[in-house]
């Protein structure tokens, strides 16, 4: 194994920073979901990297659980985007002034 | 030191992550997000975790990216193109991103993580399957319930109430 732990962790930090940038600058609801996806993926990369270098199998198990929960989160998030689009005819979150029924 | 495969994978992952956020059309953005997720799956392969890599490919690239693509196709055409953002917010966001990268990166480089290398054999993936069905089986059941509940919740949220279905016999 030629790559050290620090290389994987640095890639994960870069992915996290890009995700936070997308979440804080973009005002399109679907693009903000892209940012959330990147943050979750950087966390999973960290889990698997540390699990490889300890070495331990529980990190991979936790990463599998995390991927499944992320799938549930995206399904609900996209349903919320669709509902908001039907209400406001827009997916720009500046227009979601009042999110009441 | 890193090898060429690692370098290519990190360029692919980081580059397509930036493209996914910055390209004008959301459809190309979701395809670039697919590339990012595949790149992370490649990292999992490099880390000797083939089971997690295949799970990532099937769940993220197979289902989540396709779900995002279909949602993008449901919204109006002019909405899937980027509007010009506020310049000041954009520069502040780029500054925040660089500060995070440099700050956390410096902390990590300064820590003792640099000398951490391993020669130990990787974990056998049969062990993970065994763990799932023995020690983690209650958590597995709870996770299945959470997934089912989230799918039902998403269906309930996205249901239209103004369309009534009058095809029942009674």
What descriptors fit this protein?
A: 101 residues; mainly alpha; Helix Hairpins; 76% helix; elongated; B: mainly alpha; Four Helix Bundle (Hemerythrin (Met), subunit A); 2 domains; 71% helix
Describe the structure.
- The complex is a heterodimer of chains A (101) and B (170).
- Chain A is mostly helical and 101 residues long.
- Helices cover 76% and strands 0% of the residues of chain A.
- Chain A has a single domain (5-95), classed as Helix Hairpins (Orthogonal Bundle), CATH 1.10.287.
- Chain A is built from three helices and no strands.
- The N and C termini of chain A lie far apart (55 Å).
- The model of chain B has no long low-confidence stretch (mean pLDDT 86).
- Classes of the chains: A mainly alpha (101), B mainly alpha (170).
- At the A-B interface, α1, α2 and α3 of A face α1, α2, α3, α4 and α5 of B.
The level of helicity of chain B is: over 70%
* Second rung of CATH, namely the architecture of chain A: Orthogonal Bundle
Main beta-sheet strand count, sense and barrel state of chain A:
none
Instruction: Compute the average pLDDT of chain B.
Output: 86
Classification by helices and strands of chain A: mainly alpha
Task: Let me know the number of strands of chain B.
Answer: 0
């Amino acid at each position: 194994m030629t790559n050290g732990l620090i290389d994987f962790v640095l890639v994960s930090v870069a992915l996290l920073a890009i995700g936070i940038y997308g979440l804080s600058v973009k005002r399109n609801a679907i693009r903000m979901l892209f940012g959330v996806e990147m943050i979750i993926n950087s966390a999973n990369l960290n889990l698997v990297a540390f699990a490889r270098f300890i070495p331990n199998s529980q990190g991979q198990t936790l990463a599998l659980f995390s991927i499944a929960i992320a799938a549930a989160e995206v399904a609900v998030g996209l349903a919320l985007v669709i509902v908001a689009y039907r209400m406001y005819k827009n997916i720009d979150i500046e227009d979601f002034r009042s999110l009441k029924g | 030191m890193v090898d060429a495969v690692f370098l290519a994978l990190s360029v692919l992952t980081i580059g397509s992550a930036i493209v996914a956020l910055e390209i004008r059309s959301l459809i190309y953005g979701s395809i670039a997000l697919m590339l990012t997720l595949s790149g992370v799956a490649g990292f999992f392969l490099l880390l000797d975790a083939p089971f997690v890599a295949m799970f990532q490919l099937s769940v993220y690239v197979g289902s989540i990216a396709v779900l995002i693509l279909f949602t993008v196709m449901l919204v109006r055409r002019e909405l899937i193109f980027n509007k010009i953002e506020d310049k000041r917010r954009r520069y502040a966001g780029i500054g925040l991103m660089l500060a995070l990268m440099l700050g956390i990166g410096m902390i990590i480089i300064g820590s003792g993580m640099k000398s951490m290398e391993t020669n130990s054999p990787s974990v056998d993936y049969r062990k993970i399957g065994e763990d799932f069905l023995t020690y983690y089986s209650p958590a597995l059941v709870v996770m299945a319930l959470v997934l089912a509940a989230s799918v039902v919740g998403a269906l309930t949220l996205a249901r239209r109430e103004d369309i009534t279905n009058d095809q029942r016999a009674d």
